[in-house]
From TrEMBL:
Keyword Aminoacyl-tRNA synthetase: no
Cofactor(s) required for function per UniProt: Mn(2+); Mg(2+)
Highest rank taxon of the organism: Bacteria
Name of the protein this chain belongs to: Endonuclease
Alphabetized Pfam families for the sequence: Exo_endo_phos (PF03372)
Entry-linked Gene3D superfamilies: Endonuclease/exonuclease/phosphatase
GO MF annotation terms: endonuclease activity
Organism: Streptomyces leeuwenhoekii
UniProt keyword list: DNA damage, DNA repair, Endonuclease, Hydrolase, Magnesium, Metal-binding, Nuclease
Keyword hit for Cell cycle: no
Amino acid sequence: MANATELLPGSRTEDDGSAVVRVLSYNIRSLRDDTAALARVIGACAPDLVLVQEAPRFFRWRKKLARLAAASGLVVLTGGATAAGPAILCSLRATVERTEDVLLPLTPGLHRRGLATAVVRFGGARLGVLSCHLSLQSDERYVQGGLLLDRIAAMGVEHVVAGGDLNERPGGRTFRRLAEGLQDCWETAPWGGEHTSTPADPRRRIDAVFASPGIEVLGCGVPLGTPGVSEGDLRAATDHLPVLAALRVPAA
C-alpha cells in the first residue's frame, strides 16, 4: 500500500458561510470483522459524514450501528435495515434538516437494495447526502444508477455528495453514468490510495465518492498514511478500504 503524501484539509466553516466537509465512504461488511479496528479507522479519518454500506440489518441492528457510531465519535443519522444496508453517520457539527430511506425495486432472486439520504447544514452550507450499495448484476446496477440520479434530483438541493460501493470499476457503464453529471472525486483531486478492493491486495476501485459540480473537491482517496490509520487496522476492519474526501461546499 502506498502512503498519502499530505494530509487532507480539516473540517471548518469559512467567513463567507461555506464549509469544508470531510466525507468517508465505507463498506463495513455488517460488522463481521474487527469492530475496534473499524472504529479506530473511522475516528482517525475525522469525518463529518460517513456513508456506510452493509450496515447491520438484522437482530438488534440499531444498537450495533449506534455502538459503532459512538466508538467513532459520531451519531447515527439514518439508514441501516430501513435502507437495506446503506446508512449515514454524522458528527455533531451537522444540523439535520431531514432524512429519508428509500428501498429500490426488488429483482426476484437478488438482494434488496436501497438508498440512505439526508439533507444537512454545515454553517451556511446546505448539502444533500446519499449512501448507496449497488447490485452485483450489471443490468440491475445500471437501473439503480438511474434511480440514484433521480433521487438526487428530487432532493431539491443545489449541492450533493453521494458515495458507496458501486460493485463496478470506473470503466463500467453505471460508473460512467454517475460520473457524467457528478464529479468523481478521485478523478477530480486524487489523493492517497486509489484501489479499494481488497485490503490485502487492492487492485480495483469499486468504491467512490461523487459530488455535484458546484462543490470544490480538495482531495479524495483511500486514507493511507493518515495519522491513526494503520495498515493492520485497514486489513482487519472489513473487506473494503474506505474512501475519504474533503469538500468545500458553498454557502446556500
